[in-house]
Amino acid sequence: MAEEEDHLQQLRSKATELFIREEWKDSIDAYSHFITLCTQNLSHSQTQTHSDPQKLRRSLCIALCNRAEARSKLKDFHSALQDCDHALELDATHSKTLLCKGKILLCLNRYSMAMKCFTTAILDPQHCGNSECLNGYLEKCKKLEFLSRTGSLDLSDWVANGFRGKVPELAEYIGAVQIKKSEISGRGLFATKNIDAGSVILVTKAIAMERSILLGGKDPCEEAQLAMWKNFIDKVSDSVRKCHKTRGLIGMLSSGENEDELDVPDVDLFRPEGLENVMPCDEDADMVKLLAILDVNSLTEDAVSANVLRKNHDCYYGVGMWLLPAFINHSCCPNARRLHVGDYLVVHASKDLKAGEEITFAYLDPLCSLSKRKEMSVTWGIHCKCKRCRFEGELFSKQEMKEIEIGLERGMDVGSVVYKLEEQMKRWKVRGKEKGYLRASFWSAYSEAYRSEKAMKRWGRRIPTVEAVIDSITDVVGGDHRLLKLLMEELKKKSGGIVEMEKIFKLGKEVFGKVVKKQAARTLLELCIGD
Ligand SMILES: C[S@@+](CC[C@H](N)C(=O)[O-])C[C@H]1O[C@@H](n2cnc3c(N)ncnc32)[C@H](O)[C@@H]1O
Question: Taking every annotated instance into account, which residue ranges of this chain make up the domain SET (predicted)?
Fold first, then answer.
């Protein structure tokens, strides 16, 4: 008996030493060995070889708790949670395990469950040493739980501080949306209630994300990009391997084939606190399918609709996988935009949305011509048939239109391009939204003309005002930072009044979403001009 006890003692000391040295993998192995022997010893109650089973049970509880901590350091949250539950079966009020479990649940965005752990731990009379830390976690949990219920995030302090300090912690939030069959392609995300422009629709943490900081240049070199993609794929595979819920959810995404035949999942499955055991998929991840899914659904931070809130204008190139936003289809007249805050993706309405309306992003730049959009859509493997593409498709076959486009490409005076287009629109009786489509397609000519003193001297009186053009483009493509920038430059020239400023704030909300209070909004807008 003494020999067995010595052996257990040695194993425990070795595991603890490795744990203190933060050698997580080796400490997990050592604790696993100890846990197996302990469990065998305790389960053979008749032949029990330990002199003090009560003490052994306590040691087992601590070993499970430490293995959980080590596993969570390696982001193996699933196994770590199982260890915590096992430890809590031995001692339901073990405060260190409750703290560990609460922290893991927080990482998994299961705020109310985490809150229960911290509250129970605080009630434990032996928690005294951890009191401050537990209260801190409890406060954080309450804040995040509120955010996950309401979606009312406030990034004011961080933005007003020039993005200094830690990236604010966000919580998962799913607004009034559902997944349904889409007329665009396969499934799409739809509003279930009216949503105002600027309102946050989703806040989602990436299941995996990889960034490269590329110094000295905007275009990431191929080698750095390849390395980043490789790391990203490794991270996704790791998270899919470790969590069957992630595996089940990612398996529901499109791999680009037979999209119209895919099942329509319930949006509730994507809630962090949603049921774990509803996942149909428990098979091993098929790497070929996984790569196809990543190809179709990964998002890059530098995309047109992605405003990256970050420090110092570092040249980042980031790629990530966010599950629910992967159901958002493309439109050349998008009504939503995305914002990257750390590993979180914040999706907000860039126009007012009606209940039942499909939520769409711009995968491709909506402020460029049909031919350029067509060229870019090849990379996405999509053939867009939206109203705008259909309308422009018919018009772009007209000789006059071809001449305007070729003229622009060959460096024709931008003022005259704008003038010609406006005159043609009158002749063709183009009205309402359709005017916005064409102005958006020739945005480069409009923005250059309005910024050129020479062009404005010559054409200024014969072309519509900046405000009128921006209004009509915003009406079709929603808020866009380039429109905002031009509007602000105009305001500076004219030193505009309150009405103009309100217009800018409104457009700012459509571009960045309602994520900051008014004072911080000014900082954001200044950053927009400085871009
Ligand atoms: C990120 S997924 C969007 C959700 C997808 N419809 C589904 O059912 O899972 C991207 C894929 O949706 C399809 N898609 C999205 N927008 C489209 C559009 N405007 N026209 C045609 N296909 C589109 C393409 O097959 C694209 O590869």
Answer: 175-364
DSSP string, 314-334: --EEEEEE-TGGGGPEE-SS-
Residue 306 sits at φ, ψ, to 5 deg, of -110, 105
Q: Is the CB of residue 202 less than 8 Å from the CB of residue 347?
A: yes
In sequence order, the β-bridge partners of residue 190 are 178, 358
Q: How far apart are the first and last CA of the chain?
A: 73
Task: Give the number of the atom of ligand 1 that is nearest the alpha carbon of residue 381.
Answer: 27
Residues 498 and 184 sit within 8 Å (Cβ to Cβ): no
Ligand 1: distance of its center to the CA of 265 in Å? 16
Q: If you measure from the C-alpha of residue 233 to the centroid of ligand 1, how many angstroms do you get, rounded to a whole number?
A: 21
Alpha-carbon distance of 408 to 446, in angstroms, equals: 11
Least reliable range by pLDDT among 261-265, 266-270, 515-519: 515-519
Q: Quote the ligand 1 centre to 262 CA distance (angstroms).
A: 12
66-96 pLDDT, tens per residue?
999 999 999 888 899 999 999 999 999 898 9
The tens digit of pLDDT for each residue in 321-337 reads 999 999 999 999 999 99
Instruction: Give the number of the atom of ligand 1 that is nearest the alpha carbon of residue 380.
Output: 27
- What is the C-alpha to C-alpha distance for residues 495 and 476, in angstroms, rounded to an integer? 28
Structure tokens at 70: 């080590």
Residue 269 above 50 pLDDT? Answer: yes
Is the pLDDT at 139 greater than 60? The verdict is yes
Pocket test for ligand 1, best of 329, 363, 370, 378 (most atoms within 8 A of CB): 329
**How far apart are the C-alpha atoms of 11 and 5, rounded to whole Å?**
10
Around ligand 1, the residues with Cβ closer than 6 Å are: 184-188, 253-254, 256, 259, 262, 296-297, 326-327, 329-331, 381-384
Closest Cα to atom 20 of ligand 1? 384
